[in-house]
From TrEMBL, chain A:
It comes from Hoeflea alexandrii. Gene3D superfamilies: 3.10.20.30, [2Fe-2S]-binding domain. This is 2Fe-2S iron-sulfur cluster binding domain-containing protein. PANTHER family: OXIDOREDUCTASE WITH IRON-SULFUR SUBUNIT (PTHR44379). Residues 2-78 form the 2Fe-2S ferredoxin-type domain. PROSITE patterns: 2FE2S_FER_2 (PS51085). Keywords: 2Fe-2S, Iron, Iron-sulfur, Metal-binding, Oxidoreductase.
UniProtKB/TrEMBL annotation, chain B:
Transmembrane segments: none annotated. This is Carbon monoxide dehydrogenase. Keywords: FAD, Flavoprotein, Oxidoreductase. Residues 1-170 form the FAD-binding PCMH-type domain. The lineage of its organism: Bacteria, Pseudomonadati, Pseudomonadota, Alphaproteobacteria, Hyphomicrobiales. It comes from Hoeflea alexandrii. SUPFAM superfamilies: CO dehydrogenase flavoprotein C-terminal domain-like, FAD-binding/transporter-associated domain-like.
Automatic annotation (TrEMBL), chain C:
The keyword Oxidoreductase applies. Residues 20-140 form the Aldehyde oxidase/xanthine dehydrogenase a/b hammerhead domain. This is Molybdopterin-dependent oxidoreductase. Keywords: Molybdenum, Oxidoreductase.
């Protein structure tokens, strides 16, 4: 049994779980944050993407114990004070979601992508950067549009990662 | 996943000690290969020794043409390192094309080469670059390190600490991804070294893992241009054949990717 | 159109919860005392079960119960049925073998469920499952339908000799043969329509809860049609009578057909909840989904198309073998028959058509409807053949199509369908303009200078949606009616609830259905709630598939709205002391036309519920229901043009441009319609370029059972799409809607393959056109 503590969406949480517990299980089952989804068993679909210490990772491919002491942000923690994150707003505005199942992972990946690339994103880059996120509904067209729009709106405010 | 015990190592010594406490223990680096395998119940280590907090195993240093990459350095760190990009652009390109951004945030060079997946990218890079793999016990040349599909020269409990590379004068990598998994269906790394020799290493295609393509090395040593490979015939008898690519198709890809790698190397 | 009415590009109401992680899917549900299930599945494609030993597993930590097929039989749980009867051409009914929810004697595909383990946690259930010892005696395996039909092939079901389920035909064989015999030109082809795995991103899940006190069952499930689930669970599977069974399909993460059917797991979880006395939850992992979700397509056909000297089609003869897998799934028999062969006339005037279809059992996952269901298979045949014929005849693909287009409506085809409206040339012209078809030759030259092979291909599709009149489908063998129901409840404060039997799993009904109300009553869509997916709330419904929610589901809402409007106007006329016929509804008010007399919508609603002042004889309240049964199918149609570049060195295809010009009739929300086209086209491109399903012929193992080997379309496989619509209203329903959910998947595969074969100059190419296949077709194999 592992005792894990971490900060999730700004709140300190701790809990006991088997050492084999995946971060996604801890988030969904121990914390009841069911916005993070599981869409595959081979670490390929990205439905489970969360941010750990500021980086997008697949929470199905990390143990809860590995995240002990980390800062975790899930889809539930993205909007602040009732105001949607610009990426969330852009997904709605551009119809970047249909069934919504891939959406939390898509949005978390998009936020991470924009943080790394800032305003320099173009369509080709967005498509390549989405390699780890599978959507079966949208054909990606509107997801790409949403990410580009959010990136341009966030452009000035975003720090471009140091080279 | 079967039950396991998690340990977090704080230093190289600590890691080796923790791992030696149980026969069935395994190092856990980025977890991007080990955890998917465990989830599918194809591996059942009794203990996992987490290397992500061993600071001695992390980071990149480049000085006077010598590159050292800590084993726990992530693919993302190698891909965006400006030092690597100038000292060995082929390697930065390779790292940037492993998996997806999330995998690159976690997966490490040490984990990749210890695993030696026949479709992994790094083995081609390290063989072509004639890298040295530094473990807690010794240094091993890349040619000797990769001993076959999913097989390396590592002994039980031996820990990769770093990878050392002499910056080549030219380097290029071209990858043709498997359409489904996006691992290399064929990837070719070409490096021209300071002494004028050329190494060409192929991943994703060989039925026994990464291999060197001697005919191409010879041809390129005398004329480092894509055209120099035109006359080389790739023997497909030792190449993999599966639902995605026959050995004949892979043989074609080896040649095409080699030419593109040479072109990329400039 | 108002800001939020019919035709408005309104952002979706449901998005709010999905983008904040507040969607509620079946696997998110937690009920007190809930336990977890793991299914033990056959590792063999064909075997006899000799024994099941659970003794060791029962002692494992957390185990509550392990149940198998014998116990299921003890409780008289029924066989899984196919709900559409097809008769062979000799008049005999289809040969349906038994499908037990938990296999009892024989397993027939890898993944066939054998037993269920219920335990405190999922991992414990899986741990215990590994300790169950099932002794199998393996039997010979057949995975190809063609092989399965041969004498001496392994036999799956005693009911189906030579594995033949039925041998069915449609059309006039002799007349078609005569047309071919006297033709000026005949184009012949062999065409394979590859097997696909639907892969909605949410894996299936089920939570069965038996309440002993009430002797009542509740099932949360990933279903496209919870009412149909309840119907068959009670009427056929004998789990519980309808009044004792509540089925809830909450947020569902995509379906594409695969979540229409009632699977073994849903039956078994409900039943196991009673047997074990605990709520039982199961959720599929992805590999399980590959092994158990109904697959799609898998046809092999030969075709002959006859032309006269003026390039007019005189006859079309088709012979198809369809692989239905190990068991007959719910609608499996209708897909390669009435959903397929009735569309073989395409957009063309073809006087003689004959199709023969044989369906076959094999040791593979059952095959059923997947986005498009039969129509993609028909379209692929027709449009590949047309393109090939154009090449053979030396005329342009557009010219050959124009020569043969149906131009007068209604048009009766020789294969049942009566096309009600359309303008095929309009969509062809729109697509050709949008793709700058005329400039292609120059672009091809330019590509050549870069060492790339450029090709262009088109596809003119027509499909049939809103599968319709119940009496008609009944006469063709359907076991259910295909109407839809709706109820509109106006609350006392004027807010509106619409209850619908349609089900949204990505289609955006909460928005588009609300738009109908906004349009009618001038109220904001935020004051309208759409209620669906719960059999305790909505009395009955047929669910969502076959692009039927618009044409059928919305039509039912319109009928109910009509009734509400009549009563509301009557009441308003009474309140305003005016004549009923002078009342108009505008901007949330009921007005006397041409005066300034009005009553706000909410006040009228309140009056309906206070009932203090109502017209003589009017009942209090404002709530109306309607059932809508369409008078015909609807016929979306359009033209897709695809332009590709092939890298001759690697065989890799890049899609340079994809143009869609669709005629969906009237459109409620263009943003959502565009999204449906994008998604459909992506799945069609997936079929044509990426998605191959491979079985090992010897062992029957599915070789492509994860995303490591099954190529899902990713963002960088696809271009941005250029889409547009032309409109001919559909005369068969009140809104003039045709349906848009499947067109993209139906029309796109032939456009892509026509483009690639054009680029490489070799017409012999099988889907998916993987780099390896294209490279081989280029003939560069050494
Ligand atoms: C979706 C996906 C896509 C991928 N695509 C690619 C791709 O395109 N190309 C590619 O090359 N790879 C790909 N990978 C694999 C990825 O690069 C892995 O990160 C890598 O192979 C393993 O590194 P890791 O740090 O995650 O190792 P882990 O998974 O932690 O470990 C792998 C193995 O190495 C051992 N090990 C780890 N570190 C050490 C050490 N320092 N010394 C000794 N033994 C050690 C472990 O015990 C284990 O046996 C992909 C992975 C995923 C999930
Ligand atoms: S669930 Fe994590 S990648 Fe699919
Ligand atoms: S919106 Fe359904 S999978 Fe992406």
């Amino acid at each position: 049994m592992a005792n894990v503590s971490m900060t999730v969406n700004g709140r300190s949480v701790s809990g006991q779980c088997e050492d084999r517990t995946l971060l996604v299980q801890f988030i969904r089952e121990n914390l009841g944050l069911t916005g993070t989804h599981v869409g595959c068993d081979t670490s390929q679909c990205g439905a489970c993407v969360v941010h750990v210490d500021g980086k997008a990772v697949k929470s199905c491919t990390m143990l809860a114990a590995q995240a002990d002491g980390s800062e975790v942000v899930t889809i539930e923690g993205l909007a602040s004070g009732g105001e949607l994150h610009p990426v969330q707003a852009a997904f709605r505005e551009h119809h970047g979601l249909q069934c919504g199942f891939c959406t939390p992972g898509m949005i978390m990946s998009a936020v991470d992508m924009i943080q790394r690339h800032g305003g320099r994103l173009d369509e080709k880059t967005v498509r390549q950067e989405l390699e780890g996120n599978i959507c079966r509904c949208t054909g990606y067209h509107n997801i790409v549009k949403a990410v580009l729009d959010a990136a341009s709106k966030m452009g000035d405010g975003t720090k471009v990662a140091a080279e | 996943m079967y039950a396991t015990n998690y340990h977090r190592a704080s230093s190289v010594e600590d890691a080796v000690k923790l791992a030696s406490s149980n026969d069935e223990a395994k190092y856990l680096s980025g977890g991007q290969t080990l955890l998917p395998t465990m989830k599918q119940r194809l591996a059942a280590p009794s203990d996992l020794v987490d290397l992500r907090h061993v600071s001695d195993m992390k980071g990149i240093s480049v000085s006077g043409g010598s590159i050292r990459i800590g084993a726990a350095t992530t693919h993302a760190e190698v891909a965006k390192s400006s030092e690597i990009a100038s000292a060995c652009p082929g390697l930065a390109h390779l790292a940037a094309h492993i998996g997806d951004p999330h995998v690159r945030h976690m997966g490490t060079i040490g984990g990749s080469i210890a695993n030696n997946d026949p479709a992994a990218d790094y083995p081609a890079g390290l063989v072509a670059l004639n890298a040295t793999i530094v473990t807690n016990k010794r240094s091993i040349g890349a040619d000797d390190f990769f001993t076959g599909m999913f097989d390396t020269a590592l002994e039980d409990g031996e820990l990769i600490v770093a990878v050392e590379i002499k910056a080549p004068s030219k380097s290029g990598y071209a990858k043709f991804p498997n359409p489904a998994s996006r691992y290399a269906m064929t990837g070719v790394f070409v490096a021209k070294h300071g002494d004028g020799s050329v190494r060409v290493a192929v991943t994703g295609a060989g039925s026994d893992g990464v291999f060197r393509q001697a005919d191409m090395e010879q041809a390129l040593a005398s004329d480092f241009s894509a055209g120099a490979i035109d006359g080389v015939t790739v023997d497909d008898s030792e190449l993999m054949s599966d639902i995605h690519a026959s050995s004949a198709y892979r043989a074609n890809l080896v040649k095409v990717m080699a030419k593109r790698a040479v072109a990329a190397a400039g | 159109m108002g800001m939020e009415g019919i035709g408005a590009r309104v952002a979706r109401k449901e998005d709010k919860r999905f983008i904040t992680g507040k969607g509620r899917y079946t696997d998110d549900m937690v009920v007190p005392g809930m336990k977890h299930a793991h299914f033990i599945r056959s590792p063999h494609a064909h075997a006899k079960i000799k024994s099941i030993d659970t003794s060791a597993a029962e002692k494992m930590p957390g185990v509550i119960g392990i149940l198998n097929g014998a116990q299921l039989a003890e409780d008289a749980i029924g066989n899984i049925i196919c709900g559409w009867m097809i008769h062979s051409k000799d008049g005999t009914p289809m040969n349906m073998g038994a499908w037990r929810p938990l296999a009892q004697d024989t397993v027939r595909y890898v993944g066939d469920a054998v037993a269920i383990v219920v335990a405190d946690s999922k991992t414990q259930a899986r741990d215990a499952a590994e300790a169950v010892v099932v002794d199998y005696e393996t039997l010979p395996v057949v995975t190809s339908a063609i092989e399965a039909l041969k004498d001496g092939a392994p036999q799956l079901h005693p009911e189906a000799k030579n594995n033949l389920i039925f041998d069915w035909e449609i059309g006039d064989s002799a007349a078609t043969d005569a047309a071919i015999a006297s033709a000026a030109h005949v184009t012949e082809m062999k065409v394979i329509n590859n097997r696909l795995v639907p892969n909605p991103m949410e894996p299936r899940a089920a939570l069965g809860v038996y309440d002993e006190g009430e002797d009542h069952y509740t099932l949360w499930t990933t279903s496209q049609n919870p009412h149909v689930a309840r119907l068959v669970l009670s009427a056929f599977y004998n789990v519980a009578p309808e009044n004792k069974l509540r089925v809830i399909a909450p947020d569902v993460g995509g379906g594409f057909g695969s979540k229409i059917y009632i699977y073994p797991e849903e039956i078994v979880c409900l039943w196991a909840s009673k047997r074990t006395g605990v709520p039982v939850k199961w959720n599929s992992d992805r590999t399980e989904a590959f092994l158990t979700d109904a697959h799609g397509r898998d046809h092999v056909s030969t075709v002959k198309m006859a032309f006269d000297a003026d390039n007019r089609i005189t006859g079309f003869k088709v012979d198809t073998i369809a692989n239905l897998g190990a068991y007959m799934s719910l609608f499996s028999s209708s897909v390669p028959t009435y959903l397929y062969a009735t569309l073989l006339s395409g957009q063309y005037n073809i006087p003689n058509i004959h199709a023969n279809v044989r369906t076959v059992y094999t040791n593979t996952v059952p095959v059923d409807a997947y986005r498009g269901a039969g129509r993609p298979e028909a379209t692929y045949l027709v449009e590949r053949t047309m393109e090939t014929a154009a090449r053979e005849l030396g005329v342009s693909p557009a010219e050959l199509r124009k020569t043969n287009f149906v131009r007068e409506f209604p048009h009766q085809t020789p294969v049942i369908m009566c096309y009600d409206a359309g303008d095929f040339e309009a969509s062809l012209n729109a697509a050709m303009d949008a793709s700058d078809y005329a400039g292609f030759a120059a672009r091809k030259e330019e590509a050549k200078s870069r060492g790339k092979l450029r090709g262009i291909g088109m596809s003119c599709y027509i499909e049939a949606c809103g599968i319709a009149p119940s009496a008609a489908v009944g006469s063709l063998g359907a076991g259910v009616g295909l109407w839809e129901s709706a109820e509109v409840r106006v609350n006392a404060v004027g807010t509106v609830e619409v209850l619908t039997g349609s089900h949204s799993h990505g289609q955006g009904h909460e928005t588009t259905f609300a738009q109908l109300v906004a349009d009618r009553f001038g109220v904001g869509i935020d004051t309208v709630s759409i209620v669906h997916g719960d059999t305790d709330k909505v009395q009955m419904g047929m669910g969502t598939y076959g692009s039927r929610s618009g044409a059928v589901g919305m039509s039912a809402v319109v009928k109910a709205l009509d009734k509400v409007e009549i009563k509301a106007k009557k009441l308003a006329a009474h309140l305003l002391e005016a004549d009923e016929s002078d009342i108009v509804i505008e901007n949330g008010e009921l007005k006397v036309a041409g005066t300034d007399k009005s009553v706000p919508w909410f006040q009228m609603a309140l009056a309906a519920y206070t009932a203090h002042n109502m017209p003589e004889g009017m009942e209090p309240g404002l709530k109306e229901g309607a059932f809508y049964d369409p008078s015909n199918f609807t016929f979306p149609a359009g033209c897709y043009i695809c332009e590709v570049e092939v890298d001759p060195e690697t065989g890799k295809t890049e899609i340079i441009q994809f143009v869609a010009a669709d005629d969906f009739g009237k459109i409620i929300n263009p943003m959502i319609v565009e999204g449906q086209v994008h998604g459909g086209v992506a799945q069609g491109i997936g079929q044509a370029l990426l998605e191959g399903t491979h079985y090992d012929a010897e062992t029957g193992q599915l070789l492509t059972a994860s995303y490591m080997d099954y190529t899902m379309p990713r963002a960088d496989d696809l271009p941005s799409f250029q889409i547009s619509t032309t409109e001919t209203a559909c005369p068969s329903n009140p809104l003039g809607i045709k349906g848009c959910g499947e067109a993209g998947a139906i029309g796109s595969p032939p456009a892509l393959i026509n483009a690639i074969t054009d680029a490489i100059g070799n017409n012999d190419l099988t889907m998916p056109a993987t780099p390896q296949r294209v490279w081989a077709a280029l003939g560069s194999a050494k």
